[in-house]
C-alpha cells in the first residue's frame, strides 16, 4: 500500500469508526452465533496474490463484524469496562504508525522517557504513596506499563520469589530451585484467577484464604495461616490483596493485611487493583487505598477504568532495583552507552515493548484529571441508581457493597431461575452481562461500562431485566402451584424465602446454544476452593537442571543452611504488633 492509498483508506477507516460509534445502538450488543461460524465464511488458506483493500474492508463488515461483541455498546454491562476512548485510539494509532520497539532508552528515547513521566503523573493522580513515584525525593520506586494485570501479578510474584530465595540462600551456592518447595503465597478466594496462574507458572504453593460475607479477605485467617506455615518450616513470601475483586468489587483491608505482612520480612505484599485501583483518582475513594504504604507493588489497568484502550496495565514497585535484578539479563547486543537512560526491558517479561505511554499521555491531556474523575463518578452514580431500583423491588436482592460501577444482583429464588434470567438477557442480544459466584451465591454482574452512559441506559436495562424476570417468575409460580403440596417441615432447601421460595423444577431448560452464550467470570480457585479442604495448591515441582548427585548435595546443604536461616525468619508470634505497624 502506498502513501496515497493509505491516506484514502485511512480516512475511510476513521469514517467507519465514527459511524460505528454513532450507530452502535442499532446493533445487537452480542451476536447469537455458534463456534466455528467464521470458518464457514473464510478460506482455509491465505491468499497467494494480493487482494484489494476495498474487498478486505467489505469482508470485515460482512464477516468479522457479525461475530463481534460490542464492548462499547451502551447496553454492555459485562465484565469490567474495556476503557476505550477516541484520544487513546488516536494515541495508539500513532504508536502503531511509529512502530518503535522501545525496550531500551537507546531503542526509543521518547518512549522510555514518556513512560517514566506518565507513570509519575498517573501515580500522583491516584494519590499513591511517594515510595512508588520515581521523581519523589528519596524514592527508590517507580512504575512501568505492562500488557495486563495478569502480567503485573506474575512479574511481582517472580520478583518476590527472587528476593525470598536470595534471602534464604544467603552466600551459599545452593541452586535456587531447591528453595521452591518451601515458598508459599497467599490470596483470598475472591482474588483473581491470575494469581493462581502466576503461582502455577512460578512453581510455588498457594494458600487460599477465605473471605468474609462482603468478599474481603479474612485477615485473621491470613495471619493464622502465615504463622502455621512458618511454624511448619515453609517460607511465606507473597501476599496478594485485591482492591475491587472481580466477582463483587470488594475491597480488601490493605492496612490490616499490610500490618500482618510487615511482621514477616520475607513477605512481599502485592495489591491488585486491576479495575478499582483507578478509582483512587477520586479523593472520596481513597478510604480504600489506605494501607498502600505497606505494599511492595501495586497494579491497576487504565485499560479498564481510565478510558485507555487495551493493552495498558500499570505496575508500580517500591524498589525498582529488586524488580530489575530479578528480571535482568544483559546480552551485548542490547547494551548501549547511555547508562542514565531507563531500559524498560528490565521491568517486565517481554523484550519488545509497544509505545503504550503515548495513548495514556493523550488520555491525561485531553480529559485532564478532572475529566477522568467526572467519568468515574458518573459510573458510580449510575451503579447506585441501578442498585436502588433493584433494592426497591422485593423480588430481587443486591449481594455486594456497591462502591463503584458494579452491582451483583439476583432474584430471590434458587440459582436456576437466575441462570435462566441471565441466559435470556444475553440471548436477547439487547444487553450483555456475566455471572459470578459472590459469597457462595450465584449472582448476575451488572457493571456500568459505557463511556457516555446515562440514566436512561440504566432504566431501559432494568425494565428489560424485569420483563424477563416476570416471565420466569410466572413459570416458577405455575410450577409451584401445579406441584403436589410439600409440607413445610419437609423442605430441605436452604435458599432464602421470598415471593418465590424453594427450588422448583424449571420448565425452560437451558439449551446448549443458550448456555454457551454466557461466560463465567471466575475468581481464584473457586473450583479448587470447593474441592480442596486444605485450600492449598501445590504448583511446585522444582525444575532441576543438575544431575542427581548434585541434587542430593544441594538438599543436604539446604537442610544445613535452613537450620541457620530459621533464625532469619521472624516468628510472627514474637513480633510486637505496635512496633511493626509504626
Ligand atoms: N485482577 C482483577 C481484580 C481483575 O478483575 C482482572 C480481570 O478482570 C485481572 C486481574 C486480570 O486482568 P488482565 O485481563 O489485565 O490480565
UniProtKB/TrEMBL annotation:
- Gene Ontology cellular component? cytoplasm
What domain of life does the native source organism fall in? Eukaryota
The protein's name is Aromatic-L-amino-acid decarboxylase
Concerning InterPro entries, the annotation shows: Aromatic_deC, PyrdxlP-dep_de-COase, PyrdxlP-dep_Trfase, PyrdxlP-dep_Trfase_major, PyrdxlP-dep_Trfase_small, Pyridoxal-P_BS
Q: Name one Pfam family in it.
A: Pyridoxal_deC
Query: What organism does the record attribute this protein to?
Result: Drosophila hydei
The lineage is: Eukaryota, Metazoa, Ecdysozoa, Arthropoda, Hexapoda
Q: Which PANTHER family match?
A: FI02861P, GROUP II PYRIDOXAL-5-PHOSPHATE DECARBOXYLASE
Q: Which residues carry this modification: N6-(pyridoxal phosphate)lysine?
A: 304
Could you tell me the gene encoding this protein? LOC111597637
Per the record, the similarity remark reads:
Belongs to the group II decarboxylase family.
| Skewed-composition ranges (Polar residues) | 555-567
Keyword Nuclease listed: no
Keywords from UniProt, A to Z, are:
Lyase, Pyridoxal phosphate
Keyword flag Lyase:
yes
Region span, Disordered:
484-508, 555-582
Which GO BP terms, alphabetically?
amino acid metabolic process; carboxylic acid metabolic process
PROSITE patterns to which the protein is assigned, alphabetical = DDC_GAD_HDC_YDC
Q: Which GO terms describe its molecular function?
A: carboxy-lyase activity; pyridoxal phosphate binding
Q: What are its cofactors?
A: pyridoxal 5'-phosphate
Amino acid at each position: 500500500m502506498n502513501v496515497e492509498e493509505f491516506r484514502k483508506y485511512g480516512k475511510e477507516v476513521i469514517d467507519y469508526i465514527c459511524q460505528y460509534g454513532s450507530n452502535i445502538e442499532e446493533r445487537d450488543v452480542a451476536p447469537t452465533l455458534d463456534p466455528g461460524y467464521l470458518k464457514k465464511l473464510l478460506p482455509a488458506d491465505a491468499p497467494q496474490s494480493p487482494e484489494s483493500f476495498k474487498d478486505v474492508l467489505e469482508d470485515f463488515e460482512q464477516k468479522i463484524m457479525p461475530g463481534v461483541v460490542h464492548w462499547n455498546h451502551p447496553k454492555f454491562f459485562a465484565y469490567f469496562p474495556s476503557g476505550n476512548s477516541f484520544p487513546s485510539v488516536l494515541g495508539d494509532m500513532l504508536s502503531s504508525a511509529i512502530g518503535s520497539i522501545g525496550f531500551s532508552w537507546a531503542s526509543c528515547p521518547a518512549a522510555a522517557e514518556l513512560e517514566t513521566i506518565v507513570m509519575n503523573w498517573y501515580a500522583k493522580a491516584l494519590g499513591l504513596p511517594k515510595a512508588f513515584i520515581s521523581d519523589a525525593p528519596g524514592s527508590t520506586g517507580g512504575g512501568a506499563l505492562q500488557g495486563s494485570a495478569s502480567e503485573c501479578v506474575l512479574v511481582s510474584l517472580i520478583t518476590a520469589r527472587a528476593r525470598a530465595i536470595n534471602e534464604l540462600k544467603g552466600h551459599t551456592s545452593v541452586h535456587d530451585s531447591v528453595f521452591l518447595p518451601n515458598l508459599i503465597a497467599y490470596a483470598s478466594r475472591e482474588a483473581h484467577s491470575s494469581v493462581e496462574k502466576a503461582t502455577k507458572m512460578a512453581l510455588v504453593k498457594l494458600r487460599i484464604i477465605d473471605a468474609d460475607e462482603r468478599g474481603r479477605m479474612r485477615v485473621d485467617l491470613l495471619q493464622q495461616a502465615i504463622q502455621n506455615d512458618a511454624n511448619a518450616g515453609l517460607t511465606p513470601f507473597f501476599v496478594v490483596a485485591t482492591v475491587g475483586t472481580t466477582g463483587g468489587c470488594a475491597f480488601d483491608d490493605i492496612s490490616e493485611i499490610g500490618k500482618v505482612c510487615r511482621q514477616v520480612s520475607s513477605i512481599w505484599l502485592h495489591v491488585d487493583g486491576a479495575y478499582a485501583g483507578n478509582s483512587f483518582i477520586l479523593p472520596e475513594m481513597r478510604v480504600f487505598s489506605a494501607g498502600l504504604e505497606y505494599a511492595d507493588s501495586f497494579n491497576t489497568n487504565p485499560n479498564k477504568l481510565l478510558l485507555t484502550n487495551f493493552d495498558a496495565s500499570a505496575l508500580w514497585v517500591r524498589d525498582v532495583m529488586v524488580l530489575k535484578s530479578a528480571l535482568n539479563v544483559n546480552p551485548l547486543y542490547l547494551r548501549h552507552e547511555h547508562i542514565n537512560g531507563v531500559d524498560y526491558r528490565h521491568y517486565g517479561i517481554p523484550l519488545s515493548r509497544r509505545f503504550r505511554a503515548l495513548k495514556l499521555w493523550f488520555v491525561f491531556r485531553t480529559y485532564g484529571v478532572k475529566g477522568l474523575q467526572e467519568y468515574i463518578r458518573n459510573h458510580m452514580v449510575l451503579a447506585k441508581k441501578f442498585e436502588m431500583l433493584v433494592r426497591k423491588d422485593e423480588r430481587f436482592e443486591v449481594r455486594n457493597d456497591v462502591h463503584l460501577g458494579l452491582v451483583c444482583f439476583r432474584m430471590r429464588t434458587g440459582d436456576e431461575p437466575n441462570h435462566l434470567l441471565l441466559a435470556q438477557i444475553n440471548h436477547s442480544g439487547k444487553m450483555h452481562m456475566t455471572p459470578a459466584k459472590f459469597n457462595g451465591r450465584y449472582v448476575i454482574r451488572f457493571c456500568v461500562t459505557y463511556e457516555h452512559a446515562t440514566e436512561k441506559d440504566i432504566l431501559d436495562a432494568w425494565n428489560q431485566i424485569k420483563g424477563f424476570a416476570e416471565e420466569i417468575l410466572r413459570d416458577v409460580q405455575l410450577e409451584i402451584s401445579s406441584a403436589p403440596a410439600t409440607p413445610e417441615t419437609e423442605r430441605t432447601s436452604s435458599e432464602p424465602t421470598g415471593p418465590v421460595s424453594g427450588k422448583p423444577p424449571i420448565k425452560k431448560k437451558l439449551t446448549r446454544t443458550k448456555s454457551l452464550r454466557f461466560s463465567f467470570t471466575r475468581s481464584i480457585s473457586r473450583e479448587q476452593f470447593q474441592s480442596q479442604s486444605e485450600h492449598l495448591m501445590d504448583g511446585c515441582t522444582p525444575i532441576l537442571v543438575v544431575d542427581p548427585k548434585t541434587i542430593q548435595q544441594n538438599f543436604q546443604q539446604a537442610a544445613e543452611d535452613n537450620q541457620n536461616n530459621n533464625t532469619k525468619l521472624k516468628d510472627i508470634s514474637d513480633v510486637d504488633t505496635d512496633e511493626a505497624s509504626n
